[in-house]
Amino acid sequence: MNALQGAPLLALRDVRKSFGTGVDRKVVLDGVDLDVAEGACVVVVGSSGSGKSTLLRVVDLLEEVDDGQVLLDGEDVADPWVDADAVRARLAMVFQQYNLFPHLRVLDNVTLAPRVVHKVPRAEAEAAALEMLERVGLADKARAYPDQLSGGQQQRAAIARALVNGPELLLLDEVTSALDPELVGEVLDLLLSLRSEGVAGRPTTMLVATHEMGFAREVADEVVFLHAGRVHERGTPDQVLRDPRQERTREFLRRLR
Ligand code: ADP
Ligand code: MG
User: What molecular functions are annotated in GO for this chain (predicted)?
Assistant: First the structure.
């Protein structure tokens, strides 16, 4: 269950990714190494444009890497021969924009992937979805449409949708950035409870990109500071956020204040 016992659940090894060609080529991930042990929460921080979303998208196989390895349980999923759907079934990603389907009720948003992708019978999928909606505090909104929910409720529904298939790793990309400030707390509280209580008694393994330093301090086992596609500093939240060693990290933290 920790990094000392066997391989981490997720390991990035010298991951490189650029966009564009010739003079327009832009290196976005410049040799990133990163480990997420099972049950752990790793939080990636860094300025806008530092490569956080690309990092998560590479793990979710939404972007191909140019070089390096993305090891899930020791298997290199960046290999083009890998069954991408099988890999994605083990992961779940939640985005800044909650991306609920507006024409589907909350319950149907949550059951869609289990029913269509995993061929779970409707009754079974709905029972699991209701349980997950209960877990995120939205049991009473199952029959509502997304536009009848607040932004915080929509994001919690998106998290329920991400969790319903029982992913091994939850990828969260700035999930509170689009929310009105007064709605951020309810989503962060949910994520904190996913860390402390988990789902079905299992702590949720998470790789998180966020601007919420308070959240990073509370949930992260490790904070990784990304700048221009490189990891400049990593360590416990206390070390990186309170007592950073690198000038770049200090500068980043100063600008947040
Ligand atoms: P962050 O999430 O930290 O803000 P991103 O990973 O979104 O950073 O972006 C890092 C850099 O990569 C930015 O300069 C962005 O413009 C560039 N980028 C991201 N996706 C693409 C793409 N599909 N095509 C070209 N450039 C991209
Ligand atoms: Mg981003």
Answer: ATP binding
Residue 3 lies in a domain: no
Place of tokens 């992937």: 113
Nearest Cα residue to atom 11 of ligand 1: 49
pTM of the complete model beyond 0.90: yes
What is the interface pTM, i.e. ipTM, of the complex? 0.98
- Let me know if residue 182 belongs to a domain: yes
Give the contacts of 75 (CB within 8 A, at least 6 positions apart).
82
Residues in contact with ligand 1 (CB, 6 Å cut-off):
19, 26, 28, 46, 48-54
Q: How many angstroms separate the CA atoms of 186 and 115, rounded? A: 29
- Domain span at residue 34 reads 10-256
Beta strand 91-94 with 75-76 is unpaired
Number of domains in the chain: 1
Q: Does the residue 1 lie in any domain? A: no
For residue 197, the CA-to-ligand 1 centroid distance in Å is 34
How many angstroms does the Cα of residue 171 sit away from the middle of ligand 2?
12
Q: What is the pLDDT along the chain (257 residues), one digit of tens a residue?
A: 444 456 799 999 999 999 999 999 999 999 999 999 999 999 999 999 999 999 999 999 999 999 999 999 999 999 988 999 899 989 999 999 878 999 999 999 999 988 988 889 999 999 999 999 999 999 999 999 999 999 999 999 999 999 998 999 999 999 999 898 889 999 999 999 998 888 877 788 999 999 999 999 999 999 999 999 999 999 999 999 999 999 999 999 999 87
Does residue 215 lie in a domain region? yes
The ligand placed nearest to the CA atom of residue 177 is: 2
* Helix-strand-coil split of the chain, %, nearest 5: 40, 25, 40
Residue 197's CATH number: 3.40.50.300
